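User: Before I run my own analysis I want an independent prediction to cross-check against. Here's the chain; please return only the structure tokens and, at the end, one sentence I can use as a sanity check.
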Amino acid sequence: MKVEIRLDDQVAEDEVLLLYRANSWSSAEKPKQLLAALRHSDTLVTARSGGELIGLGNAISDGFLVVYYPHMLVMPACHGNGIGRKMMQAMQTKYAGIHQQMLTAESAAVGFYEAIGFERAGTTVPMWIYQGSGH
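Assistant: Structure tokens:
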């Protein structure tokens, strides 16, 4: 499969919702807010195959000290092909000089993130106020 990774790509609502629903992310239930959040991210990275959106991630950053990676999704049928790794590499290249790179990982994704250099954040505990029904 030939995959093209793009930073700051434009995305359409229908393709984004298809990807989020395929991964059972509840943010698909709020399409206007989801699209606005993605379009206002500091960085948006996409993976496309034959023009079709098969992966998406974003970053929010102050540009100096902290970058947070809130979303990283790959179409389930494409898992295990290195697509998420390539998208993260593109973003980590952009944020290479940033002091702190952060994310919150689903338990099933912890091994993936550890394999690309992330580690548990000492004794910190992730916390949130969440208004979704799932992820």
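Sanity check: The mean pLDDT is 93.
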